[in-house]
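Ops channel
N.P.: pipeline sanity check, posting one input/output pair.
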């Protein structure tokens, strides 16, 4: 097989956005053949299956992934093929989300990550359950007036990491459209993850994006940087998993996890919402990201 297969997709996201969980669910889906998928597994670039097998094991027993450690960083690159035999390379720099945050905080990007991000289309994962919302000054003032003031609190020094999620995301996307990562117009799939929690708001994924991430929404809709985007709702777990008990003696078991372990076909836990329809096939957005050739 040729060394460089085009097109290329990179899957990215801030800390805790669901990158490792997505990879585990995708690996289960394409390995198990439980349900029919748009794209099928072709090959792995480095034949390193140990890491994938480790994360999929946790996913199958409905246990959360541990934080991805810098020392254990794995960049996964797999080739998937569509019905006509066309291949797509899906690169998964499964780096801790901090590496993206470093781009925001220190304006630096690691060389290997830059190589990944500088080529191809992007799947951006956002944890719909952990969006740090902007605080309106007027609201703050209002609250300050209402709340009885106790002993004076130490003011918290502002640091870039305290910036709202959408500010960090727009900055990340802008980096991808500027030198040295720029490569012209690209496709972007925004995946609003943990949809099983986010759907309680009663919004469609695109309305959720407009309501909860208005800066990101307006940045994308304005079209100023040349992104062609689609927004999906994603539940890669199908509900809440048991907490990971590695280094955490008080890890909580969750009721939802017992329900999820009962599924006959574990692929059916996965939920993907796009437009008005719902499926279990995580390869759908990847196929769209292959673009028209
Ligand atoms: N309810 C729910 N939670 C999810 C889902 N997907 C991910 N999560 C939770 O989101 C948290 C982060 O998921 P990870 O996959 O570890 O995220 P990550 O982007 O790899 O995080 P880092 O490696 O720490 O940067 C975990 O607590 C997951 O259990 C989902 O579909 N539903
Ligand atoms: Mg991770």
């Amino acid at each position: 097989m040729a060394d460089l297969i085009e097109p290329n997709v990179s899957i990215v996201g801030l800390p805790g956005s669901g990158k490792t969980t997505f990879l585990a669910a995708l690996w289960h889906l394409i390995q198990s053949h439980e349900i029919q998928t748009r794209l099928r597994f072709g090959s792995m670039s480095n034949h390193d299956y140990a890491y994938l097998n480790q994360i999929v094991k946790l996913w199958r027993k409905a246990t959360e992934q541990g934080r991805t450690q810098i020392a254990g960083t794995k960049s996964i690159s797999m080739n998937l093929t569509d019905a006509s035999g066309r291949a797509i390379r899906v690169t998964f720099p499964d780096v801790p989300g901090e590496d993206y945050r470093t781009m925001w905080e220190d304006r630096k990007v690691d060389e290997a990550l830059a190589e990944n991000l500088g080529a191809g289309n992007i799947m951006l994962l956002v944890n719909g359950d952990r969006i740090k919302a902007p605080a309106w000054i007027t609201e703050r003032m209002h609250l300050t007036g209402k709340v009885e003031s106790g002993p004076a609190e130490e003011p918290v020094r502002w640091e870039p990491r305290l910036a709202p999620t959408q500010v960090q995301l727009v900055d990340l996307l802008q980096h991808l459209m500027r030198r040295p990562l720029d490569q012209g117009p690209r496709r972007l799939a925004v995946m609003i993850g943990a949809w099983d929690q986010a759907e309680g708001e009663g919004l469609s994924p695109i309305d959720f994006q407009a309501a909860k991430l208005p800066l990101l929404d307006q940045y994308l809709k304005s079209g100023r940087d040349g992104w062609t985007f689609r927004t999906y709702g994603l539940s890669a777990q199908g509900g809440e998993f048991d907490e990971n008990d590695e280094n955490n003696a008080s890890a909580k078991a969750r009721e939802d996890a017992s329900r999820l372990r009962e599924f006959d076909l574990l692929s059916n836990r996965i939920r993907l919402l796009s437009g008005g329809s719902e499926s279990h096939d995580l390869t759908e957005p990847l196929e769209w990201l292959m673009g028209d050739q």
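N.P.: looks fine end to end. The chain has one domain: 8-131+157-289.
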